[in-house]
Specification:
17% of the residues lie in helices and 33% in strands. It is of the alpha/beta class. The N and C termini lie far apart (42 Å).
Length: 142
């Protein structure tokens, strides 16, 4: 079926969403704010940008903002089961820094899901979880 705004089937060439050029911030809905805050501040050492309230805390990650928040608009949603990841985030570093991050996680008592490894698709990866069970990856292109 041809879209009236396009010349190709299934293509939305005039969509206003084509103006999006970056993800400005990411919000993680948290179950345990204190544990998540300790993890992102003390283990990952993300710089605190601002704390708008005890329910909304923002960190700087490169040119992006990562916010920890207690659900408000989605408060009536069923919670993600404990032990289940709600999201996966990947943080890009150099190849040597992947191993350094693994060493720092071990020093902080955080067990990796898998140790640093070179993948067939050209990345060196390290996978681990935050206190709410979200999957985090530190990777480098190799």
């Amino acid at each position: 079926m041809m879209d009236e705004q396009t010349s190709e089937p299934g293509r939305h060439t005039r969509s206003p969403f084509r103006a999006i050029r970056a993800i400005d911030y990411t919000v993680i809905f948290v179950r345990d704010m204190a544990a998540m805050r300790r993890f992102y501040e003390d283990v990952l050492v993300f710089p605190l940008l601002r704390e708008l309230s005890p329910n909304w805390i923002e960190y700087g990650v490169g040119s992006n903002t990562l916010a920890l928040a207690r659900p408000s608009r989605t408060a009536a949603d069923a919670p993600t089961p404990t032990g289940s990841a709600s999201l996966q985030m990947a943080f890009k570093v150099s190849a040597a820094e992947v191993d350094q991050c693994a060493d720092e996680l071990a020093r902080q008592g955080v067990a990796p899901l898998s140790p640093p490894a070179n993948q067939s698709f050209g990345h060196r990866t390290l996978f681990f979880r935050d206190p709410d069970g979200n999957l985090l990856e530190v990777y480098a292109e190799i």
